[in-house]
Amino acid sequence: MNDLVIGVVVLGAVFGGALFRMFLKRVLSDQHLSTDARDVIRMVMAMLATLSAVAGARWLLCKGAGPVLVAVEEDSEEGLWRAGEGR
Question: Does pTM top 0.70 for this prediction?
């Protein structure tokens, strides 16, 4: 994708989220706008961010670095690895 298209999509998502929040503030009752409800939302968002970071790190470790690391034939019994040797 073009960088400009990605930027426009992200801008649209952020702007749309802000408009949706302004709509929800009018529609929801005061019970849903309390401090406890906001704390629960913050906790859930932090958990989702942590889980997505863990999934991204797992992908990087398993899939991203896999082709770069190749066992050296003479040292494969000891389990030594050397980076940078492609297939």
Answer: no
